[in-house]
Amino acid sequence: MRFAGYIFDVGGTLVDSVPQNLLSLQEALAQFDCIVPYELLQLYSGLDGDQTLQLVAPDLDGEGRKRVLQAQGKLYEAKYLGSVKAFNGVRDVFQALAEAGGRIALATDCKGPELKHYRSLLDVDDLIHSMACGDDVEHGKPDPRLVGLALRKLNIRADQAITIGDTPYDAEASLSAGASAAGLLTGGFAREALREAGCLVVARDLQELLEDLVSERFRLSAAG
Known about the structure:
Blueprint lengths: L4 E4 L6 E2 L1 H14 L6 H6 L5 H8 L5 H19 L4 E2 L3 H10 L3 E5 L4 H11 L7 E3 L12 H10 L6 E5 L2 H9 L3 E5 L6 H6 L4 E3 L2 H9 L1 H8 L1
Parallel strand pairs: 1-4, 1-6, 4-5, 6-7, 7-8
Antiparallel strand pairs: 2-3
Helix pairs in contact: 1-4, 3-4
């Protein structure tokens, strides 16, 4: 494989959590008399929460956005977190990458009980070399600092790493940090949107992505 490091997003990439996140945000906004269509929220899935609210609820001030995000967090943990499942094959993919000499990191905006629950679902802590999460940085993706922190913890150069995510914002964060990007269709974004964001490869799921990463065609295209 070309890459020494593989940096994975979590929500929408390793665990199937996008609908739950969007519904909890929609409900939290409704508590503050902001009615926002689900389809509009989908466009900004994976974007930093405060930036999302500036786009979908421009009448909210900074304090209002903070209160909405706090309400969402409580709704999500109480009503939706228990329904989140891990995508199939995560451990198998991580195992294959590790056996090929790859170093694996997680780079996710998640934190606290949410992240703890996801890690219990995934059962891959023994295959992960490092982790950067929402407790470590102030801003979410596409800000590149989360990816940059994961790179530093992996102790590898940016050009030796690829980030795997499910949104254009994952790709933008990765490219801004100097790494490559791959995209999954598991987060609800179109293949074209992920390609336009700079993903070298876009796959249906993790298993297909692994096949792409080890293919000669991909190695040649990535090298170019």
